[in-house]
Amino acid sequence: MPASSYMSNYVPILIQLILAVGLAVGLVAISELIGWRRRSKVKSAAYECGITPQGDANRRFAVKFYLVAIVFILFDVEAVFLLPWAVVFRQLKWLGFVEMLVYIGIVLAGFAYIWQKGVFDWNQPERAEGGPASPIH
Q: How many CB atoms lie under 10 A from the CB of residue 37?
């Protein structure tokens, strides 16, 4: 295949990319040029769901927020491994089925462990400053 013919297949993509970037830059530029600038104390204040901000923005969050986020990402990534297995399920036969049962068993054992340690129990009071940083110890 000649090089010119191969590159000509990408011309529509290049045109679309140029138009998208041009439109974005143009809209921002026009907004900056003709937009009104009326600064006020109310507009400069932090907006948090309509509630007046209280306290310091650098307040420490409970570790439980981070633990739940990590567990969510962990199980999301593990769920991604199920799709390729499902695509080739018939070719893997019984060995593939047993391997996936072992994999799901390990995932569920980890889930049972973090559940037993109280990661998802939000009714527990926060620990003191000198105590362990997380419920998993």
A: 5
What's the CA angle centered on 121, arms 119 and 127, to 5 degrees?
75
Over residues 95-106, the pLDDT tens digits come to 989 999 999 999
Q: In degrees rounded to 5, what are phi and psi of residue 25?
A: -65, -40
pTM for this predicted structure: 0.45
Helical packing angle, 89-116 and 63-80, nearest 10°: 170
Instruction: Give the SS3 label for residue 18.
Output: helix
Kindly list the distances between the CA atom of residue 125 and the CA atoms of 56, 94, 122, 128, 130, in Å, as whole numbers in the listed order. Answer: 22, 47, 8, 9, 14
| Phi, psi of 18, rounded to the nearest 5 degrees | -65, -45
Evaluate whether 104 touches 75 at the Cβ level (below 8 Å): no
**Residues with pLDDT less than 70, the chain:** 1-3, 46-48, 50-53, 57, 124-137
Residues 134/63, Cβ–Cβ less than 8 Å: yes
User: How many whole angstroms separate alpha carbon 90 and alpha carbon 97?
Assistant: 9
